[in-house]
Every structure is written in C-alpha cells, then in structure tokens.
Design goal:
Helix 3 runs antiparallel to helix 5. The protein contains 16 helices and no strands. It is mostly helical. The protein is elongated, with a radius of gyration of 27 Å.
Length: 371
C-alpha cells in the first residue's frame, strides 16, 4: 500500500515543504524561497543588482572611459559572473529545487516509491539533520567570505574602474562575490543532499516498472527533474566561454593555455556531476529490477521445458497455444535484456551533450566574428 505523508502532500505551501531542500540556513533559505515562489521576480532582481555597479560607475565616469585600461563596460568578467552566473543560479534554485517535492510526489503516486510511514519518518529525520548540519550551514558562508576577501585584492589595480583610490564602484565587487559564491556553494550542497535522499528512498521498497510508458521504468519524473538543469548548463557554458575569451583578449593568455583548458574541463566535470549525480542513486534499483525480471523469465522457460519435455525444442510437436507462449516469452526476454538501467534516454543524453558543447560553440562563433 502506498503511503503519502503530509510532508509530501504539503498542501498550499508545497514549494517550501520538507524536501524542497532550501531549509537549514536563513540567508540561503530566504533567497531560495524567493526564487521558488517568484522565479521571474527573483531572476529580474538579480539582474538589476548586477547593474548597481554600472549605475555607480556611470556617476563616477568609469562606465565607459577610454583613458582607463579597463572600464566597466568592457569588463567581461563582471558581466559574466554577475549578469549571467548569479541570475542563473537563482533560476536553478527556483526550477530544479522547487520541483523536488513534486518529483517525490509523482514517484509515490505512480507506485515507484513504496516506502512505509516509518521509512518516510527516517527520511525526514535524515534530511533535517543533513540540512542543519554545521558544515552544511557554515561552508557557504566560508566560501562566500573567502571569495570576498580574494576579490578585494583587485581594488588595488590602477587605471581600472575598480581602482579604489579613484572610484567607489569597485567596492561592490567583494559584496557581489560573496553572494555569488555563497549561493553557488549552498546549491551544490543541496544537490548532494538530493542524491543522498534519493539513495535512501530507493534503499527501501521500490517498484521499478520495466514496461512503463516513460521508457525509464516509471522514473520519468526524475529525468524531467534533471532536464530542468539544461538551460542553466547552457548559460554556464556561455559563462565558461566568456571567461576563456576574457583570459585571451584582456589578460593576453593564449587560447589553448592551461588556465583556459582547466576552466573548460571544470565546466564539463561540474555539469556532469550536477546532471548525473542525483540519477546515479537509482541505477542499482533499476539494475536489480532488470535482473529480477530476467530471472523470472528464465524460471518460466524452465517450467515450460519441464512441462513439455523434449518436445519443447521441436515447435512442430507443440500446439499453436504452446508456440504462442514460447514466442511471447522470447519477445519478453528480448525486451527485458534491452531494458536500460539508468533513468534517462537517448534524447536527454543528446541534449546534455549539446549543452556541454556550448563553450566550444560560443568560442568558435567569436573567432569567426572577430578574427
């Protein structure tokens, strides 16, 4: 019998329920809740905040200033991180983590998750303990503060829009860096929490359905959950490409420098982890379901062979009904052997590959336009 706890039903406040993963920290929870409840407003506000430095720079005369070695308008790094990256994180918080409670609900409604009420209580206690863990709470702050301290060093650069001796706009760099890296770490820890929660849930009783219409054993809702990362991956691909172009055009690094290579590989690695890690928790359950089905088919073959004796190997000695039984069983066995053991299909893998190819496409277009 399927059990759906009140924490999974979550009446009107569903997006802020137990498994929304925005709990555990007041600042991160505040940003995450805003992103889930009003995604467009949250993203728009993040975009507007990136223009706060532009407003100050315009008043100070450093927005567009040819006498500077680098004015704000031509600072790819600023727009890359705070106009693209931070709003995209807000979008991911609203779309991906906001959908997590609904995904669990769908898995329960379709009969895939068959955890008992005691099992759900264990998950609830585990989730609360994980999200309120001191490391989970403090690490985003430490990362954000470290980024703020490191970026404050650039304020000593002379002849730039963030030269602290001439302009005040650069003071906003450490502040923006804190929120960017704070929230990036906050979401990374929540992604890891999603993996742990799914791994725990699929350690209980589950019902993988090999012939489900979604082609993923009834786990299509989880595939849809991961697909919500696609546009975020595309934008971060653009961010990585612009970072490489910035290193090449502004800091005079060669396009194939080790720094650019590491930046590209970091993007591919982190994108792969973000996309596949939560789904990896399910592969063992799907593998077990496939082996269980194949075993039952083999047992049925054995029963038919024992029933019909040596005649089972000579179809002309069998009745039409018996031949039909063997054909149906053979067809079922072929289908079971072709059953995949991961909750994604060829289409999702193609979209993932296209998303991770974004940096190369952007760099190629830039080279064609500005060669």
């Amino acid at each position: 019998m399927r059990v759906i706890l009140s924490e999974i039903r979550i009446p009107l406040d569903a997006e802020f329920g137990l498994f929304s993963l925005v709990h555990g920290d007041r600042l991160g929870s505040l940003i995450g809740r805003f992103a889930i409840r009003s995604r467009l407003k949250a993203v728009s506000l993040a975009v507007l905040l990136s223009f706060s430095a532009a407003l100050v720079a315009a008043l100070e005369g450093s927005l567009v200033n040819t006498s500077l070695t680098l004015d704000l308008f031509h600072d790819i790094g600023w727009w890359n991180q705070f106009l693209l990256a931070f709003p995209t994180l807000i979008y991911i918080a609203g779309s991906y983590f906001g959908a997590f409670p609904k995904t669990l609900r769908q898995l329960t409604d379709t009969g895939v998750l068959q955890a008992t009420s005691e099992d759900w209580k264990k998950v609830r206690r585990f989730t609360k303990a994980r999200l309120t863990n001191a490391t989970f709470v403090l690490l985003p702050y430490l990362t954000g503060l470290s980024a703020a301290v490191l970026t404050s060093n650039v304020l000593q650069s002379r002849g730039t829009w963030y030269d602290i001796e001439q302009y005040w706009a650069g003071v906003l760099i450490p502040i923006h860096a804190f929120f960017l890296y704070f929230f990036m770490t906050f979401l990374a820890l929540r992604l890891y929490s999603a993996f742990l929660i799914l791994k725990m849930l699929f350690g209980f009783k589950v019902n993988i359905q090999p012939f489900h219409s979604d082609g993923c054993g009834g786990l299509g809702s989880l595939m849809e959950q991961s697909e919500k990362l696609y546009w975020g991956m595309v934008v971060f691909g653009v961010v990585a490409a612009l970072g490489i172009l910035s290193n090449t055009l502004i800091y005079n690094l060669t396009l194939l420098s080790i720094y650019n290579f590491l930046l590209l590989m970091s993007y591919v690695l982190l994108s792969g982890i973000a996309f596949f890690l939560p789904l990896y928790a399910l592969t063992q359950s799907m593998h077990d379901a496939k082996q269980k089905l194949l075993k039952s088919i083999e047992e049925r073959y054995r029963e038919l062979n024992e029933k019909h004796g040596s005649g089972a190997h000579q179809r002309e000695n069998l009745s039409d009904e018996q031949v039909a039984d063997f054909k149906a069983l053979t067809s079922l066995q072929q289908t079971a052997r072709a059953m995949q053991v991961w909750p994604f299909n060829r289409g999702s893998l193609i979209r993932y590959a296209c998303a991770t190819a974004t940096p190369l496409m952007v760099i190629l277009i830039a080279m064609l336009l500005f060669r």
